[in-house]
Every structure is written in C-alpha cells, then in structure tokens.
Amino acid sequence: MRNRNHSALAVVAVAACGMAVAQTAPPAADEKPASVSGVVTNSVTGEPLLRAHVTLRGGFNPSNQTPQTYGAMTGAEGKFSITALRPGSYSVSAERIGFEMAAFPDGGTTTQVTVKSGDTKDDLKLKLVPDGAIAGRVVDADGEPMEAVSVTVDTGGFGGGQGTITDDQGHFRIGGLRPGKYRIKATPTNLPIPAEIRTDGTVEVHYAATYYPRSLDGKGATKINVAAGGEVTDADIKSIRTPIVRVSGTVTGIPQGSRNVSLMVQQGSGISSGTQVKPDGTFELWRLDPGKHTLSATWRNAGQALQTAPLEIDVAGSNIDHVELRMVAPSDISGIVQFEDEQAKPQARPQQQGQGGQQSEPPKPPQRLFLRPPSGFLSGGQQQAEIAADGSFTLRQIQPGRYQVTLSWNNAYVKSLRLGQAGMEGRTLDLRNGSAGAALTVLVSSGVAEVSGTVRNGDDPAGGKLVALVPDPADGTRPFTARSGPDGAYRFSGIAPGRYKLAVIDDADQGAAMSDAGLDDYEDALEISIGAGEKLAKDLKVRAGEGK
C-alpha cells in the first residue's frame, strides 16, 4: 500500500508551480524552434529506463508568451527527444513507477534547462533512484503471529506514511520507499471498550502500538536503513503488552440540554481514540496506549461551536480519573501591532520604472498576523488577520488554547505580547480561558538573528544535507530547514532570539521536527542560545554511518 505525500511516481517539484498547461503553439515569426534530448537511467545499475515520462515546464521569455508544458516517453535505450520548443527556461521532470528522482549536488531534486532560438541540446542526463522496501513479521509477547495489525512508516509529523496490514502469519511488506532511514510502527486494532469480565482466572491481553524492534515510543525505536532498490526482510516487531487503562472525567460549560458533544484524543500525529460525552457531561475513555495524549471536547449545533482548551495527559499503567475539561466560548480579539524600531516594519518594495519615465510602485500585499496552534488536529488550525495601515487588526472566533504569534514578513519577530493588563514575553499567547474581551498588543522588533556554518562528513564538506533549527522546547511551529550547499555551507536568517536545537537530520524526519518531540530523537543535536541581532557560527557533523 502506498500512501505518499509526494507521489507514487518519481516527480520533480515544479519550479514554476501553478502555471497552466497549454497545447504546443508555434514559435513567433522571429524565433526558431529549439530541441532538447537526452537519456534517463537507473542511478544504481546505470541501465537505461524504458517508459520514463520526461516533462519540461516553463518557457518564460521576454515576449511574455503563455507558459508551455512539453513531454516525451523514453524508448528502449532510455532516450527521449522534445522538439519545437519555444525559447526560454524550463524545469525538468522525470517520473516512472517504482523510482524517485536522484538528488543533485545541492541536495535538490530539480534541474533547469534554458534554450535560445534554434538551440539543440542533446546531452541532458537524468537519473532515477529505484525505490526500496521493508518486510518482516509482527508477533505477540509469546512469539505468535498477529493478524490484521496496521504497520506504517512513522513520519513523526502529520499526514502519515506508507503502510500495510499483516496477513494471517503476521507478515507485512511496505514498498515504494525512497532511500533513507525509517522508523516503523505496528498498531493493533483496539476497540475503546472496558476490559472483558472473565471468571476463568485469565486476564484479557492488550497490546499497544509498538515501534521496531520493541519500543513504546519513537525515541527508543531503531531506524531501518533502506538502500536504493534494496529490501530489508527481517524487520520483525515484537508487540508490547500493557495494562488496560481507563481515563474518565467531566466536561463543564455545555449548553443546557445539549447531547451532541464529542471528545477526541490525539497521540502523536493523529486521532487515536474518541467517544461521545454523556448527557450529564461525564465521559470514559478506554485502552489508551502509554504516553502523552491530548484531549479536547467539542459541541456543534446549527453553525455554532464551543470547544475546550486542549489538555495533555500522560498515560502510564493505572487509571486516570477526575479529568475536567471546560467549554470556553470562542474569542473575537482586537489589537494593535507596535514597532520597537523602524527596521521592524515591513520593507517597502523597490520602485519600478513606469510609462513616461515615472516611478510606479505596485500595491504591496497586505501584511498579516498569524496565530499558529501547537501541532495537531485538535488545535483548530492556523488563524490570521490582516494588519491595517495603522497597525490594528481583528482576530475572529478564536478557540481556546495556546498559540504562537508570527508575522508574514521576515525582517522582524514578535518580542512580547500584552493581553489586557497581562504581559507575556515572547510569542506565546495563552487563550486557554479565552480573551475576556481584552485587547491584544503585539510588540515587534527587528533584532532577528542568523545562524550559519558548515556541514562536514569527517574532514570533508557534506553537500545536500538537511539541517533543522527547532525551538527548544519545541512549540509545534514549523522548524527552519536548509540544505547545505556543495561546499557544505548552510545559513538561517530572520531568526527570533531564544533557545534552539540544531542538527543534521534525515529527510524522513522533517515531520518529527515539526511535532512536539522536535529534535528529541537526535541526541547529538546542539543546544544553542541566540541573542537579539546575533550572528552565530556553528559547524555540524554528519552522524556516523550516514556518509555522503
């Protein structure tokens, strides 16, 4: 089973995204058609690839003609030819089932070709990397096979990864994996019901979601290295038996007479369980796996909605009772953005030459303020408001919770907040009890920082490596990521002062870096503190075994 955010095909990201696909049109009278040809090969064996689909997208040129998309299929020798091209620059795509586009020296998977009128380019070489696979068995504590268990590639973030279901012998196989290191997790189907009542002296067994080879959390998991075109066949998972645990409590603040109140539970990257709240406001949850869970209750009726602030609980080996969740009405919040200095304001665009030699300035896009909730499905999603010329804004229908306040421009950061008379350092806005009608003041400063350095493998520079800079502790907002160049150099700019973790990470861990776990899996991550306006230099090492 393939459930992929990119595609089941090896697709190069299009540089000119969102352009219309048009039928090939004849070149202008003063242009001669150009042509591009080349070969597509298997990056491992060097063999030519038959039936690979090659695409050129773009064709922007000074005459501002409509962008075009050209395509061709490779023949038995892996060769392709695209003719009658308009002059211009094109992004190149190659795709074939079971393959991924090979990375270029800068770590990216895109390349461009530029052709002039009458050009003939016949040396385009594209390489596709064959996908790999992971196979194994899932067994219980006694070594017996477990049937119908979901086995997935764990991304640590959202959207999930490839997965499959075990057969009657506990076997599984996950294909379509690009080369890299992966965690896999086996999750049995556990109905959220109380334990069976037994009188024969036996006790019902509950198996929790288990990472390979035998761990209840991702940090204790062993990553599986999948080579290009390779298959790991011995990835056996021994499921862990845990107690059947009850979580119970009460939801308060429900409108009188309401019955449609639902309680959802999130663990890690998805909804793990849920239940309906009883008419008296009480609830019970059963069979939650060990670890941290987030609870939130929601009432909806005729377009109206109330929600409780997300509450985190830590499930271990015993019941958790008397949990209280309180419904809070959503808030409309008016506020003002204040600037500590002129440099913190959004920078104006440079003026452009207009007709008659006059300077004309295109209208600036509206600047925005964002409320970003912690990562997760229960947080209600990102909210935003347009900032008026006088700095005022209004956020509407904000559900209770904790949010990170961020800006739509990069030369500044949120230094502090004030909700009514309550001041808050940094960008965390606490609305777990609502706003109570208080106004929000956002102080913005230009004292952003910079972090740069070189990634090395031993003494040699390591190009194309993914570097992540994540707030410490992680606040659920998107981390900064950058690719090291061919000389190993990387650079982050526009960084808010504070504490961060910095590490070279696997591509498959981008989702985990976005989650509450941050870079917890990386014991070698550097812990750094960055001051306002500071330029910090930090060289990084590729972890042993990763190579170039």
The span between the termini is 30 Å
Strand content: over 45%
Number of DSSP E strands: 47
Class from secondary-structure proportions: mainly beta
Count, helices: 1
The CATH homologous superfamily of the largest domain corresponds to Carboxypeptidase-like, regulatory domain
Give start-end ranges of low-pLDDT stretches.
Answer: 1-24, 349-357
Helix fraction, binned, reads under 10%
Radius of gyration: 27 Å
Assign an overall shape: globular
The average pLDDT value, as a whole number, equals 86
Tell me about the largest β-sheet: 8 strands, mixed
Q: Give the count of structural domains.
A: 5
**Quaternary:** single chain
Quickly name the level 1 CATH class of the largest domain. Answer: Mainly Beta
| Annotated CATH architecture of the largest domain | Sandwich
Q: What is the CATH fold-level name of the largest domain?
A: Immunoglobulin-like
